[in-house]
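S.,

Sequence below, as promised.
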Amino acid sequence: MFECLKDIDLKKTGIFGAGVLFGTAGIKLLSSKDAKKFYTVCTAAVLRAKDCVMKTAAAIQENAEDIYAEAQQINKERAAMEEFYDEEPEADEAAEDEGSAEAVTE
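The prediction came back faster than expected:
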């Protein structure tokens, strides 16, 4: 009748029993009022940190938009200056051509 008990490994059975005991105690501990208060405090801290990160991200985004707008303005001004300098030599060349044509006709 007790022959089947000879095949049971007491070390593994003890480890299993200890695991069940610690698991049950852990569930009780994690669902206690103190644990719930700790979870609430931690969640509140995470929400405060999230607000701080979101404010910082918004400030960075605004600065990036300002930088982008200023960079576009600089590029527009530079393009306008390049057009101005590109057009000016053509006008000088045309004036020189007219001056040389007048000299030939005289």
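The chain has two helices and no strands.

Coffee later?
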